[in-house]
Amino acid sequence: MIWTGLGWGAVGLGSLGVVLPLLPTVPFLLLAAFCFARGSERFHHWLMTHPRFGPPIHDWQAHGAIRKPAKRLAVGAILASFLIPLVLGVSGWVLAVQIPVLACVLAFILTRPSGP
């Protein structure tokens, strides 16, 4: 029951990530697949065959891939994550922390294959 509960929590956070640009969706779905695989075969099957959630999980598991549309959205969200605080005049030390973190995330995303 603990694995299933953690899986549903991850699905909930991943679902929020669909509409909130700064919250990632796929990492939470990968976590949900991991938890459901240990807690509920039925929910694992549901997640893996879901028309919206299943394909990115399959792409990652089979090829370590992130599809091009998802990459474009991620790059846009990363740029917004930096530009909004910049425009709002957030202190320099916050921007100094953001730059290397966002650069690492961006590098990771852009170096993944785009799919099969």
Could you characterize what this model shows?
- This protein is mostly helical.
The overall pLDDT average reads 89
Unreliable stretches, pLDDT < 50, 5 or more residues? none
Give the percentage of residues in beta strands: under 5%
Using only CA atoms, what is the Rg? 16 Å
List the keywords.
mainly alpha, about 80% helix, about 0% strand
Question: What's the short version?
Answer:
The protein has 116 residues and is an all-alpha fold.
Task: Provide the fold topology.
Elements lengths: L1 H18 L6 H14 L1 H9 L4 H10 L4 H21 L3 H20 L5
Helix pairs in contact: 1-2, 2-3, 5-6
